[in-house]
């Protein structure tokens, strides 16, 4: 497969995952706005979400104060924000158009329809586009695309590059959200594990659509340690870091079997998974959650670089 | 005359580039004017590409250097036995017809001043006209290194009144074209003279098509026709087209080039 | 008012090849037609066939208008066209092989040397190069117009990279999906063998250094190009990679493709990029689309470029006038398909005639394309004629002129119902080890009433083109 084609598939998936992340952020933000005493908390929440999306500075420059409507504009419609839903779906569709022939008709139609519907949404007056409609549409669209990929796409190397994109982006997004929440919400060390941050942690679970899943998995009290375990080390959780890393390993292994050769990307992915498989949540807190997450984000980014060098640049012999 | 040549081009890239691709015209063609005794082109770290003779009769050789590349050294060493043919290129096989050498490029485009210069001379026949144009160009553009650069056009050099062999050659080609004579740019080497007249060891001159004679060389910088001191490497429509080494470096970089050329008479 | 030859009805009677379509038309009320038209458009849009027009801005996903009413040729009509097209494709390739070799046709005084060797499409870098099998133009698109039952003229030749073949294939696909009964009732020659024939043609011109099943790639300027859809469509149907310049690189004496399994050699490049942009080392140094060193590899036999650089010198509008002479000179045959009579404005007596008959003539720019640098005398206002006259006087050598041809018409679906509209035809002739031609081609139709300009950039549409089996 052409390296550029693989790169387009990889990025198609990354953009779709990123669009979904932006929609989840919007959803959780909107939920906070509905709670009483939103005042100061409201601002903190949004700031955290914007920071997790990596766009807090750009937002501040363009809009200043985080007013709900501006945040919606920024995270959903704003073409200047490369992480907005609209920008991500455009980019995903553009990547898909370039590799049109590597996709099935169903996948392409899902992508193309998403783009057409987005244009339709953009044409409607803002008063008609309720926030929940926007976020539901985005999450449904992303799910539809993943569904057509799973249902119709040939299980060849292109399928693997798509999934590498999904898993890499998800690992990165989840880690960032965790990192930002930790950093913002726990300025004082004594709060850790004290139960005082319960409300904030629930918000975090909601942002990852893992609120109910968490209760099914653990029951009982919500503690920082349990949440960290769930979102980092529990392979039952679809958005846990370890789940993404397992996915990366599975698809990299498929590639090395198909191509009959291993690359530094497999080595890096295996190393990352090996460490996580042995890890206890206490070790993470010993190291420091922020320190651990920074290290993880760096490792994922390094893995992305190795995937690029090994497959997407076409230079590797 | 036996001429020994040692020519090194040292390219440096900062920061290093991903890949360098070069196209060389560094091998003298065999013809009545010159016979190659020995010849060697080396590019340490490079991979030689396909070699072929192009339609103008020049031997072309591609080279690639895989990155990261921070420098490329191209060294040419050889000995050529030359014969004075009174400037006429004899026994040189080529496919491009003379009429194809009437077209201008930005470097050889005619402006009003060049047109005036080309029309300022009169001559009874083509050969005399070519000589007259050669002398007129030599007189209008004084030899002075450092005032012009690689992208100076014929018109700019004439306006300046100063330049080097590249500028003389571009201007002479432009003038010849205006007088409906096919003309082209030749790159090669010239052995040092002792009388102190200006020269550049890596040299360039023009060839003008003279009906009945064929291609005749004219060196406006030295007001003469190439003789046994000249070694011809290749030709083109202008300096860029005839460049002995053309290259593309892939990557954002700053390229610098050092050239050293030694051209000397060798023992018989 | 000029009388036009209508391909369906000549003198009131329905011509035989259209007999079934008459019934089909009668059985289709306006509502059904509108429904079908909407269905066709939805199909095109879903498949993603769009056409962006250079410099017009607007919707990059514009559809080229598809007219459902097919155009029909009998087996006999096609037989003659096919012979004429093959003959012309052979002559054009012989001309190219000659002018990049000894130039016998110039030496014989038949074609002026300046016209060839000072032509901007002439590539000095190709002189003395003999591509595999001596073929320079592997896909020859020959634009034909019809003025009567047996009167066909060649309007122009396209020796570089004629576009539009994807429409020929998609038009048929969509017609077969929407009107299967029509295809059961008529014995229509299929066109879907084209991609395989193209692949076969490209494989047959693999370079000498290729010692295995050749790897073929289509080189596209990228997804912003208006014909990108066609590039990806052909690559998909042929099962070959669609590459951009950045996907290829030169190392040693071969061209390599960047793949997820490391570099793979490429043997044949079907490029849809102009000469000037294929190799910054040889042509335009500022080209971002090309592959540095490609021409050196090509000229030393490490890769084949289709069409060969410099092939455009054969389809120049001024060189066009000499094609009948080429047929006689190289093939020793009489041309089967005549040229449109052409005045060369470079000649002073021709220019004089043209200037005094401007309102009756079609004047074309020699190096232009797409119908922009063009005057259609009878359709132009007097201001337009005068503006063009000034350009013509300034640079006469840039123009040729032709009589306004009474282009044939074919019934077409228009706003008001069914009405005759002017058409032309572009068949695609493949030249490799053999010469192959699928029966049919792309019929372009001028959908504006009275318009003679069929270019898609000027409001033209397309039709399915049928050749009936014997």
Detailed description of the structure:
The complex is a heterotrimer of chains A (317), B (268) and C (470). Chain A is mainly α and 317 residues long. Chain A has helices spanning 3-34, 38-52, 56-63, 68-77, 85-98, 105-123, 131-152, 157-185, 198-207, 211-218, 224-233, 241-259, 264-278, 281-287, 289-312. Helices cover 76% and strands 0% of the residues of chain A. Residues 184-196 of chain A have low confidence and may be disordered. Chain B folds into two domains: 2-81 and 244-265, Immunoglobulin-like (Sandwich), CATH 2.60.40.2250; 85-242, C8orf32 fold, CATH 3.10.620. In chain B, strands 1, 2, 3, 4, 11 and 12 form a six-stranded antiparallel beta sheet that branches. The radius of gyration of chain B is 18 Å and the shape is globular. Chain B starts with a strand and ends with a strand. Chain C has helices at 19-26, 30-47, 75-99, 104-107, 113-117, 165-178, 180-185, 194-203, 228-238, 294-299, 323-331, 348-356, 382-394; strands spanning 9-10, 13-14, 66-73, 139-148, 151-158, 216-219, 241-243, 248-251, 254-257, 264-266, 268-271, 304-306, 343-344, 361-365, 374-376, 399-403, 409-414, 417-426, 428-431, 435-437, 442-446, 460-467. The two termini of chain C are 37 Å apart. Chains B and C meet through strand 1, strand 3, strand 4 and strand 11 of B and helix 5, strand 8 and helix 10 of C.
């Amino acid at each position: 497969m052409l390296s550029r084609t693989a790169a387009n598939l990889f990025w198609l998936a990354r953009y779709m995952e990123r669009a979904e992340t932006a929609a989840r952020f919007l959803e959780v933000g909107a939920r906070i706005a509905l709670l009483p005493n939103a005042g100061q908390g409201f601002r903190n929440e949004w700031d955290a979400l914007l920071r997790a999306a990596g766009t807090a500075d750009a937002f501040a420059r363009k809009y200043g104060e985080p007013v709900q409507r501006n945040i919606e504009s920024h995270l959903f419609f704003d073409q200047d924000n490369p992480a907005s839903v609209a920008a991500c779906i455009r980019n995903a569709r553009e990547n898909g158009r370039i590799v049109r022939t590597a996709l099935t008709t169903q996948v392409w139609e899902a992508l193309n329809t998403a783009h057409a519907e987005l244009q339709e949404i953009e044409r409607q007056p803002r008063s008609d586009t309720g926030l929940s409609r926007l976020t539901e549409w985005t999450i449904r669209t992303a799910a539809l695309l993943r569904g057509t990929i799973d249902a119709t796409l040939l299980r060849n190397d292109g399928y693997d590059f798509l999934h590498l994109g999904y898993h890499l982006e998800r690992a990165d997004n989840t880690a960032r959200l965790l990192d930002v929440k930790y950093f913002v919400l726990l300025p004082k060390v004594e709060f850790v594990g004290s139960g005082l941050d319960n409300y904030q942690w629930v918000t975090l679970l909601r942002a990852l659509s893992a609120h109910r899943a968490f209760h099914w998995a653990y029951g009982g009290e919500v503690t920082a340690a349990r949440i960290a375990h769930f979102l980092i080390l529990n392979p039952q959780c679809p958005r846990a870091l370890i789940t993404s890393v397992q996915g990366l390993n599975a698809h990299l292994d498929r590639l090395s079997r198909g191509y009959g050769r291993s690359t530094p990307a497999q080595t890096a992915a295996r190393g990352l998974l090996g460490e996580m498989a042995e890890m206890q949540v206490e070790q993470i807190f010993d190291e420091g959650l922020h320190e651990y997450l920074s290290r993880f984000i760096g490792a994922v980014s390094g893995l992305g670089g190795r995937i690029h060098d090994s497959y997407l640049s076409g230079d590797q012999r | 005359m036996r001429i020994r040549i040692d020519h090194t081009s040292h390219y440096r890239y900062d920061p290093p580039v991903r890949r360098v691709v070069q196209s060389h015209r560094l091998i003298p063609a065999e013809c009545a004017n010159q016979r190659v005794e020995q010849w060697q082109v080396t590019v340490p770290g490079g991979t030689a590409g396909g070699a072929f003779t192009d339609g103008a009769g020049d031997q072309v050789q591609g080279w690639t250097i895989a990155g990261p590349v921070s420098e490329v050294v191209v060294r040419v060493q050889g000995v050529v036995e030359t014969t004075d043919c009174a400037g006429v290129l004899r026994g040189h096989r080529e496919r491009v017809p003379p009429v194809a050498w009437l077209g201008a490029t930005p470097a050889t485009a005619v402006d009003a001043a060049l047109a005036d210069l080309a029309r300022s001379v009169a001559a009874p026949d083509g050969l005399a006209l070519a000589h007259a144009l050669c002398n007129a160009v030599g007189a209008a553009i004084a030899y002075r290194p450092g005032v012009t650069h690689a992208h100076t056009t014929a018109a700019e050099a004439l306006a300046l009144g100063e330049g080097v062999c590249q500028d003389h050659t571009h201007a002479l080609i432009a003038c010849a074209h205006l007088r409906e004579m096919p003309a082209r740019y030749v790159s090669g080497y010239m052995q040092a003279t002792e009388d102190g007249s200006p020269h550049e060891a890596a040299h360039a001159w023009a060839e003008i098509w003279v009906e009945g004679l064929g291609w005749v060389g004219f060196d406006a910088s030295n007001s003469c026709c190439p003789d046994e001191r000249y070694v011809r490497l290749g030709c083109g429509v202008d300096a860029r087209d005839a460049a002995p080494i053309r290259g593309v470096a892939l990557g954002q970089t700053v390229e610098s080039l050092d050239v050293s050329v030694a051209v000397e008479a060798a023992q018989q | 008012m000029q009388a036009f030859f209508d391909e369906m009805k000549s003198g009131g009677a329905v011509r035989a090849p259209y007999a079934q379509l008459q019934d089909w038309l009668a059985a289709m009320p306006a509502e059904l037609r509108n429904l079908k038209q909407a269905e066709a458009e939805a199909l095109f849009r879903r498949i993603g066939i769009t056409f962006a027009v250079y410099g017009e801005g607007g919707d990059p996903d514009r559809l080229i208008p598809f007219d459902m009413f097919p155009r029909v040729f009998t087996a006999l009509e096609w037989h003659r066209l096919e012979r004429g097209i093959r003959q012309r494709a052979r002559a054009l390739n012989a001309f190219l092989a000659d002018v990049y070799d000894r130039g016998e046709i110039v030496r014989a005084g038949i074609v002026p040397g300046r016209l060839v060797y000072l032509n901007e499409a002439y590539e000095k870098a190709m002189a003395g190069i003999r591509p595999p099998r001596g073929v320079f133009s592997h896909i020859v698109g020959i634009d034909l117009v019809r003025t009567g039952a047996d009167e066909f003229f060649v309007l122009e030749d396209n020796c570089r990279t004629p576009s539009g073949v994807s429409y020929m294939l998609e038009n048929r696909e969509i017609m077969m999906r929407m009107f299967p009964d029509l295809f059961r009732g008529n014995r229509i020659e299929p066109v879907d063998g084209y991609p395989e024939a193209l692949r076969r043609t490209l494989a047959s011109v693999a370079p000498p250094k290729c010692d295995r099943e050749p790897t073929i790639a289509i080189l596209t300027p990228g997804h912003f190009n208006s014909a990108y859809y066609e590039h990806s469509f052909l690559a998909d149907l042929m099962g070959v990679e669609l590459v951009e310049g950045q996907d290829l690189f030169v190392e040693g004496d071969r061209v390599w493709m960047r793949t997820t399994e490391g570099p793979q050699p490429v043997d044949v490049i079907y490029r849809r990029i102009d000469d000037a942009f294929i190799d910054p080392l040889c042509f335009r140094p500022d080209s971002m689309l090309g592959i540095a060193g490609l021409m050196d590899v090509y000229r030393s036999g490490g890769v084949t470029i289709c069409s060969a650089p410099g092939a455009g010198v054969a389809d120049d509008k001024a060189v066009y006038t000499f094609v009948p002479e080429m047929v006689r000179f190289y093939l020793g045959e009489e041309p089967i398909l005549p040229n449109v009579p052409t005045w060369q404005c470079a000649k002073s007596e021709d220019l004089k005639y043209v200037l005094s008959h401007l309102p009756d003539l079609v004047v074309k720019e020699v190096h232009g394309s797409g119908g922009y640098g063009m005057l259609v005398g009878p359709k132009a206002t007097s201001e337009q004629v005068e503006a063009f006259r000034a350009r013509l006087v300034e640079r006469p050598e840039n123009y040729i002129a032709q009589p306004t041809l009474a282009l044939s018409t074919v019934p077409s679906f228009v706003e008001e119902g069914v009405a005759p509209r002017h058409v032309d035809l572009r068949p695609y002739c493949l030249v490799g080890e053999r010469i192959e031609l699928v029966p049919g081609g792309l019929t372009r139709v001028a959908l504006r009433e009275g318009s003679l300009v069929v270019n898609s950039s000027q409001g033209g549409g397309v039709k399915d083109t049928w050749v009936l089996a014997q």
